[in-house]
Structures are given as structure tokens and as C-alpha cells.
Sequence to fold (375 residues):
Amino acid sequence: MKFYFFVFLFGIFISISLVSASFSLAPGKLYFDMNNNKKICQKIVLISDDYKGKVKLRDVWTGVDEDYNINKFYMKAKDFGLDVSYPKTIAKFKDRESIEICLSGNNIKEGKGALIFTPESDTNIVVEVGAWLFVEGESFNPPSYEEVNGGGGAGESNVLNVNEENNREELDEELSQDFESNQKPMATVEEGEKGVGRITGAVVGAGKNNWEIIVIVLLIVVIGWMFVNQKNKRD
Amino acid sequence: MKKILMLLVVVSLLVGVVGFVGANVTQTASVEVISDLSLIVNPNPIDYGTLKPGSKSIKNVTLTPGTSHLHIAVAITGSSLLDDIQWDRNNDTVYEAYNAASFNMTAETAETFNTKINVPVGESAASHSATITYTVLEKP
Fold:
């Protein structure tokens, strides 16, 4: 009996000592072609099986050539000529919530950002989730985080920077492919459909060649004609 | 009259068969793929214990991602002492700053590494606490 009680307590201890954040986003990346300076809105869905409560939202931005380290996303949407609108808080999140993010503005410059969803946490460890935002617009090379913050920023990891540099070409290639492949879905989103982040397909069955159909129809016609003829003769 | 009726039967049979044979039966299938941004952080809290000035403490941290490849950014806020937590991701005792670190993780592949805190000589006696925020995004 004591053994089972100990196992029970140990289980509780283990589950308390873990921080679990099971959030999902659909999609994880949003692409906005703002070359025509129009307003584009897209939907993003936050899903969680085990979190209920308040979720705060914020957006962070940087130049397209900068690292993907959001700690260095020091710019604001207005620096890119962007007017970004989305709900700043989801007061009572439960199961899933769809929010709409709209981008508009004039003389919009290219950039990348992230929309971050921050849940409340009872502990000193917070796990927040985010979706990438990629904006196509006028070419723009803002000063880097290092230039603005006077060289290597606090807490920078040289090893990571080297790794990120090594991955840069690969990442850029992936992103440009992603952007091209998402151009069409983005247009469908603008028209009010959910396209990005979905895979749809169609299975077509019972497709026959036309000549087969024609032969069958002719056979039926001939049989019918013969049947009618026979009847006529009897009458 | 019989002829007309017979003709009607034949024609309706014809139309039915043509409709049956000629119809393209289309079945649609769809699936929504979502990013699994789940991340389990163990342990919580990280307790470095009671330390004297000039000493250090090393604790293991394990990050377990879900079924998507992740990009993670770490931010530490609070005590300046804990802002300087270091980590050796490659377990090679080459420690780097954990605060502002950014890295990719492979789906369903947990990573365990050391984190270290150094208490400078002459540090005043006090309790310290900080919040570690993990921002999880899909791998770009």
C-alpha cells in the first residue's frame, strides 16, 4: 500500500516538474504580397488540448536578411510602412481560436516578422508560440540588430551565429521556394477561403474512355430498335 | 399506343444507362496539416541550490519537441545573476550565453544539455529568481 502511495506521489511530483505546452498553429507561416499596397487579411488558428485561459498577442519585426532569432527582432511594423491589426488578447481561450491578422499601408517595405501568442504561466518558465510573417514589398535593408545595439549584443552566442550563417543560404532557398509555392494559396485566402497550410486533393473514380461509352450506347440503341421491331411484327 | 410506350421505355433506359456510364464520380479528400509547437521543458524550476560567491552550479535541462521541426528563442528576464545562465548545447563544456539563444530542434528528438550559473566573487547574499521564456515557432 505504501509503495503505491509513493508511486502516486512520485507521479504527481514528476508531472509538476514538467512544463508542458501543447499548442498548435495553422498555418505556421503567413505570406503577404504587399507590392500593390492593398489590405490583406489572413486567418490563423491557435489550437490547444490542455490550455484554457488568457492569451496575449504581439508582433515583432526585422529585415529580411536578418537572423531568425526573434530576440533580435527589434523593429516595429510601422518601420516597414505597415499597419497591422489583430486582437491583442484572447480573453478566454479554449480548444481553438481563429484570429484574423490584417496588413495594410503605403510604400510598404519587405520584411519578416512573427506574431507571438503568450499564454499565462504559473511558473517561472513560459512557453509561447508564434507564426512567421513574411512581407513582400519595396527592397529595404534596415540596420542590423548588432549595428543598432553596438556590436555583439548581450547574451549572444558566437557558436549559434556561425551555425545560423551556415544555414542562411539553405534557409533563404527554402523560404523563397515556400514563398513561390504559397503565392496561389495566399490569393485564395484573400478571396475568403482557407488555403494556406491545408493539403487538399481529389480522388476521381469511374472515369471511362469516351469510345467505350459510345459503343455501349450504340449497342443499347440497336437492341432497343430490334426489340421494338419484333413487337411491331407481332402486332 | 404500345409502340409509343415501348419507345419511351427504351429511351428512358438509354438515358439512364448513358447517365450511369458517363458520369464522372468525383470523391474529394482533404486534410489540414497544422504546426505542432508543443515543447516540454524539464525541470521546472531549475534549482541551482545554495551557493557561495565564487562558486558555480550546473544543472541538466531537457527540451522535448513535438512532431514538428521547431525554431526556439530563449529569453531570460529577472535577476541579472540568472540572466547570465550559460549552456553547452553540444555537451562539450564550451558554454555560451543561454539568454537570447536561438536554435532549431528536430521533431520528436529530445535534447539534454547542461546549464551553468557562476556566482561572482563578492556577490551579496540574496535570493534570485528569473523567468525563462521559450518562444516556439515552426522551423523557418
User: Anything to note?
Assistant: Chain B is about 20% helix and 40% strand. The longest helix of chain B spans residues 2-22.
